[in-house]
Specification:
- The protein is mostly helical.
- It has a single domain (about 1-230), classed as MetI-like (MetI-like fold, Orthogonal Bundle), CATH 1.10.3720.10.
- It has helices at about 1-10, 10-50, 55-70, 75-85, 95-120, 125-135, 140-155, 155-170, 185-195, 200-230.
- Helix 2 packs across helix 5.
- The longest helix has about 40 residues, at about 10-50.
Length: about 240
């Protein structure tokens, strides 16, 4: 029992690594996740519009993108983007590993966000689009002004859930060998664990992830519950029966 506690809950090790986890790791984890979900939202809306197109040649590239990046394990995508692109001479971020890390997670986030937005847009009654078109709006304008805003509102809880997934998947970018100042939570903890052969640093990183994801999970559930309650029709009292 003593060895178990010393390996996983060594207070000295936790206190040694915790300041770096909080000042550097937490900041970069949130940065990667925030940039990834921002890209995912913008690209996801565009991809969803393409997926809903009536033209097969327009739908096919979007469907191929979504299927590929949803089907590949995240660790494969991170490796292909962060290690493969520079090796092939494609270096949009130079030698900055953090840029490739954000791009890899963002590409995955965009694929999942596209399906979220597609479902949200399809949940909007078709009559909304027909009414906008009857007022003389072009199709794209009607989608942008009328349909898409309603679809986005319907999928806000799912988008918040995707942000939580991006936070957790950011741990995979340790493969790219981030430099000092760019390391995220898992990278810092893994370095410490490799140096000390003690897993307490990983436990400390896990606690940091839980401090992020658990409150966000409850916030997502609360948002989802409030939105579902807001969509319920108001309850009206039954008319009183006339007394004979």
């Amino acid at each position: 029992m003593h060895d178990f506690l010393r390996t996983f809950f060594d207070l000295h090790e936790i206190l040694q690594v915790l300041p770096t986890l909080l000042t550097e790791g937490l900041r970069n984890t949130l940065l990667i996740a925030a940039l990834a979900i921002a890209f995912g939202v913008v690209a996801g809306v565009l991809l969803a519009m393409l997926l809903l197109s009536r033209r097969r040649l327009v739908r096919l590239p979007a469907r191929l993108y979504v299927d590929v990046f949803r089907g590949l394990p995240a660790i494969v995508t991170v490796s292909l983007v962060g290690l493969g692109l520079p090796a092939a001479g494609i270096r949009p971020f130079g030698r900055e590993a953090l840029g490739y890390a954000v791009l890899a997670i963002a590409l995955i986030s965009a694929a999942y966000s596209a399906e979220i937005f597609r479902a949200g847009i399809q949940s909007v009654p078709r009559g909304q689009l027909h009414a906008a078109r009857s007022l003389g709006m072009p199709y794209l304008t009607a989608m942008r002004v009328v349909v898409v805003p309603q679809g986005v509102r319907n999928v806000l809880p799912a988008l918040a859930g995707q942000f939580i997934i991006d936070i957790k998947e950011s741990a995979l970018v340790y493969l790219l060998g981030l430099g000092l100042g760019q390391r995220e939570l898992y990278f810092i903890a893994q370095e410490r664990q490799a140096a000390t052969y003690n897993s307490s640093a990983l436990v400390a990183a896990g606690l940091c992830y839980l401090l992020l994801t658990i409150p966000l999970t409850y916030a997502v559930n609360l948002l989802d519950r409030r939105m579902r309650e807001g969509r319920r029709p108001p309850v009206t009292a039954a008319p009183a029966k006339a007394v004979a």
